[in-house]
Design brief:
16% strand, three-stranded antiparallel β-sheet, elongated, 3 strands, 116 residues, single chain, alpha+beta
């Protein structure tokens, strides 16, 4: 499932080849990637180091989703997947709240007594 990362990109805490087999895979809305991983994925190396896992992002064609592939030992893969899914949900809810506040502000401006 997915291609194995190139050998030069494999950090020392990953056991080759057993940790590169059977990765955890999930999908995230592409619009959330910058919030989760920083501009141009700048936080990915830190997340990989802390989680002891390897992350690989694959844009899905004709979709607004990106596939996240997590390699590592069994427990680290599961913990990293859970953490990233939680981050994605938090950022999704935060963006929705921001849109609701914006919509409410726009409605207030349109219905203000000075606009009548």
């Amino acid at each position: 499932m997915g291609t194995l990362p190139a050998r030069r990109n494999i950090p020392p805490w990953v056991k080759v080849p057993e940790d590169l087999k059977d990765p955890e895979v999930f999908q995230v809305q592409t619009r959330l990637l910058k919030a989760m991983f920083g501009p141009n994925g700048s936080r990915i190396p830190y997340i990989q180091q802390v989680s002891k896992a390897i992350l690989e992002l694959k844009a899905l064609e004709s979709s607004d989703l990106t596939e996240v592939v997590v390699y590592g030992s069994y427990l680290y893969k599961l913990q990293t997947k859970w953490m990233l899914q939680s981050m994605a949900e938090w950022h999704r809810q935060r963006q929705e709240r921001g849109m609701l506040i914006l919509a409410e502000a726009m409605t207030t401006l349109e219905l203000g007594p000075w606009m009548k």
